[in-house]
Specification:
alpha+beta; extended; 145 residues; two-stranded antiparallel sheet
Length: 145
């Protein structure tokens, strides 16, 4: 990891000037900035609207609803459209519950990690170690990963 370090350097001509030096290694970080300091207040309507637009414009959703769900319709029972609507509603409900659970879990985990600078540096160290390990494995084994 490379970090830019600002330092004052006394030049030979007697004038001080700021220079940037590149050094490697882990350096202490500035304290984490809280969410309240980073972001303006959230507008729930805007968040819901953005989520809806993303969900509706997702091509995977169209593929699922047009290719997969019709296999589960009983044509001999009639009323194909209400069957498809029911399957769509069930799929949307499962996605809502699943995505909400993941969102709550991620928010809770983020709060827990931000609660301690030690946890943040530990997750950074673990993430970096995993990335380096994967890079070494890829270098040693080739493209068969």
């Amino acid at each position: 990891m490379a970090a830019v370090v600002r330092h004052r350097h006394h030049s030979g001509g007697g004038a001080d000037r700021g220079e940037s030096a590149m050094c490697t290694g882990l350096l202490p970080r500035e304290p984490a900035v809280t969410d309240a300091q980073q972001r303006p207040p959230t507008n729930v309507r805007r968040i819901v609207r953005q989520g809806f637009v993303v969900g509706v414009s997702n091509p995977k959703g169209f593929l699922i609803f047009s290719a997969v769900l019709p296999q589960f319709v009983n044509r001999s029972a009639g009323h194909v459209t209400p069957q498809l609507l029911l399957l769509d509603i069930v799929c949307a409900a499962v996605a809502l519950v699943s995505d909400s659970a993941w969102g709550l879990l991620a928010g809770t985990a983020r709060g827990w990690f931000r609660g301690s600078p030690h946890r943040l540096s530990a997750i950074g160290a673990v993430s970096g170690t995993v990335m380096v390990g994967l890079g070494v494995r890829l270098a040693l084994t080739g493209n068969d990963v």
